[in-house]
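User: My instructor asked us to take a sequence, write out its structure as tokens, and then describe one feature of it. I'm not sure where to start. Here is the sequence I was given:
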Amino acid sequence: MTAHKATPSSARRRRSGHAHARGRRARKGSLWGGAAALAVLCAAGFAAAGWTSADAGGASAGGRSTASAGPSGSAASGPASSGPTAGTAGAGSGTPPAGPSTSPSGSPSGGTSDSATAGSSASDIPASGPGTFTTASGSSAKVGRGTALRYRVDVEDGLDLSATDVARQVEGILGDRRGWTADGRSAFQRVSGGTTDFVVRVATPATVDEICGQYGLDTGGEVNCNVADNVMVNLKRWLLATPVYARDVTAYRALIVNHEVGHFLGHGHVGCPGPGKPAPAMMQQIKGMDGCVPNVWPYDDQGRFLTGPAVP
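Assistant: Let's start with the prediction itself. The structure tokens for your sequence are:
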């Protein structure tokens, strides 16, 4: 879910926050109280969408993405950052007869060394951390066309996560041919030092709340946000996803990154375009699918932008 009030400071970068958090506490009960209904939708949606990985074309970071849609009205349902961008679709093999492909082709599936992922439950996840971060070392090749947006990947200290593994997954997502580079203009490159355009940070719920709260967002210990140059990923969502995507947490991570980076690029929220159609990456899927089938990518395998009606 995402709420944002942002004022783009450039044609390519969104500098004020997007949070999927407005009215968070008031909605929390209804949000998670609908888990059973979402789980039913999940089963139907997975069958409709199919969990396959499209080959990411030619990028060293898990495939070259060519998708960066221009700003599509930044609607907000909260202060200023994007909440949990549901972006995990089921992984699997086989080609679906129809529907979107959801598994991140460039990111590890299943066998990552994120030991905290396997068998994680909400009670296992630390609520707070030191608020300091370790930056993933090294860098990636540029993916996409145009001038690359330089980004860093940070993991809060003390977590049972490898910054290297998280960086590899983020690279794969941003480098996928169904991602934001699919418009033929946008490009990304991960760096570990020097100037950056944005930072992807995985952090405990309390740290996410603190950083997002500095921009007036209430993430309620549950959701992600984009504020200024920070793409804040709530550890709960990174490890547990949401009910619809519980069967493929790796895919949901793609939705988180694509949704929040989409806000950074200037995209606002959209709704479901119609029953049985792929849910856009900029749809607040955590609120419900509204008849759409699960999808975590901004573009489909044919390079078509997946969007819907603008929503506030």
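For the description part of your assignment, you could build on this observation: The longest strand covers residues 149-156. Try explaining in your own words what that tells you about the chain.
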